[in-house]
Amino acid sequence: MVLLEENKQLQHRVEALDRKLEESQAQNCDLMQVISKREETIHTNQVRLEDKSRECTVLTRQLEEALEEARRQVTHTRERAASKEKSTQSKVLDLEAQLSRTNSELGQLRRTKEETDRRYQSRLQDVKDRLEQSDSTNRSLQNYVQFLKASYASVFGDSALTSSFRPPSPL
Question: Quick one: signal sequence residues (predicted)?
Answer without folding.
Answer: none
